[in-house]
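Section 5: illustrative case.
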């Protein structure tokens, strides 16, 4: 593995993640920790954050042209404030982004915003897979 420091703030990594989640050619999505049935991912992450003051999110996005594994780590200390750091793995390259300070309120907003972006991407992917399955199962018209 080769490690590259981008010199860019982690907000650029989040911008790239958002762009990837908006793509129409996504063929695979995964996130860890994985929520249980009926549980929202952002609730899982929020629970880690409020109980331990730290939460790490792993998101894998694959398209026909790339596979990126995003790792975002948020920490909050009442005396020091909040920090978000992250990196993305693509092939054998790990690109590290510079940490940024963040308020507790902004962390909650970011969880909602990126949670919604992931949910929409997941919904598009599921619709695409269901359409493909339906098309494959239909008998040819005479």
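Designed sequence:
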């Amino acid at each position: 593995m080769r490690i590259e420091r981008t010199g860019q703030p982690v907000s650029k990594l989040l911008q790239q993640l958002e762009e990837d989640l908006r793509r129409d050619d996504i063929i695979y999505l995964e996130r860890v920790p994985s929520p249980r049935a009926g549980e929202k991912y952002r609730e899982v992450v929020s629970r880690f954050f409020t109980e331990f003051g730290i939460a790490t999110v792993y998101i894998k996005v694959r398209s026909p042209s790339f596979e990126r594994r995003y790792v975002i780590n948020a920490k909050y200390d009442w005396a020091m404030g909040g920090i978000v750091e992250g990196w993305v793995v693509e092939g054998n390259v790990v690109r590290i982004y510079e940490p940024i300070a963040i308020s507790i309120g902004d962390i909650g907003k970011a969880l909602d915003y990126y949670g919604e972006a992931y949910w929409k991407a997941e919904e598009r992917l599921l619709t695409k897979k269901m359409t493909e399955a339906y098309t494959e199962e239909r008998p040819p018209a005479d």
